[in-house]
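Email to the structure team, subject: Fucose permease model.

Hi all, the expression group asked for a predicted structure before they design truncation constructs. Nothing fancy, just the tokens so they can compare against earlier work. One-line instruction: predict Fucose permease, return tokens.
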Amino acid sequence: MSDAPALGTDQIARLRLATTMFFGIGGFLFAGWTVRIPAIKEQVHASAGELGLALLGISGAAVLTMMVTGRLCRRWGSRQVTIAAAALLCLAVVPPTLTRSPLALGLTLVLFGIGYGAIDVAVNSVAVDLIAVVKRPIMSGLHAANSIGSLTGAGLGAVLALWLSPLTHMLVALPLGLVATFWSAGLLMSAPLPTARQPEMSAVADNGRGRDLRFVVVIASAAALCAAYSQGALDNWVPLHIETDLDGNSAVAAAGYATVAGTLTIGRMAGVRLIERFGHSLVVVGGGVAAAVGALVMALSPVLWLVFAGLVVTGLGLSNIFPSALALAGAKGGPDGIALASTLGYAGILMAPPTIGFLADGFGLPRALTLIAATLLTAGALSFVVRHHIDGAGRADDARQDDGAGQTDDRPVAGPAVR
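Reply from the structure team: attached below.
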């Protein structure tokens, strides 16, 4: 460990603000693009199927990029990759608006997917480093910043869509994103960020400690997949469930989506203090059980107000599972752990719409939505399996002990290493 003094309060505050901003930037840009998809569809004269194939440019590129970003973070540093990915994402919002065919749209969205996938892994890796410094479970609060950024981007996009074309809209978002990126980059690089250096997952020694490390990372990543699957299913199918099964109008259906997004944000904003007071285990495991009950009420109740009550319980219970799973995967596996959890989480989001749709065709949408309760219970059970590791994921010492060697770095910073 370095002999350098620990970071000062002001330095930690700057690092935390910068990390929060990068979470928000990612959400802001992605949501701003998403609300313009209908207009882009008309612009490129795409059918629903052609649009779906074009959008694979984002999802496919994002998944492939997530798989390699852990290596990039180890080589170049998580902060540096975060900054580069955010800048790329800012630039990538414009090219899709210049296209005039589904093929061209899909090709330009590959660049967008690369930026999105890279920042997802890199900024969460930075967050794990920051948690080791502040010794507080702040991952949920950082993910709340992503939710707030998404809500801001979607809200601004909805307003700008009334007057601006997609190209003009993105030409507004581009400088806003770049200014926020460069300002946040200055804060993020203004102080060293100590961290316990984690081994590459594929290079972990084949011994008891190594097997335990891999086991915890895999279980945490599986919990992330279940949580992300549940959120993806809620986002895609709740509005349709309210309209078709409960005879709600489009405004009520939109309110259902807003309820999910809002409770997830509120739960994550409160997550830091809840976890500090009650512990990760109770908040995450108990949240999974409560969310599963809420999901069953949402899916099977014929009464609209009970459906909304179920959505509130589901959103609040679900809110801290995914951030906690990422924090644990990163604390035990470093950038590689984050990459695995992020990739599986994103895969869960992609799996949710088709699997629920397939089940809905055979059994009806209400019964199909009960699968959300099953995945939430699974997420809670997986979190219970690694509950002792979850409660220690915010402590820098645990990460060093699990690394086995307490590796050091010769740069003059506090802590064992710097990314």
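The radius of gyration is 21 Å. The first strand starts at residue 194 and ends at 195. Ping us if the truncation boundaries need rechecking.
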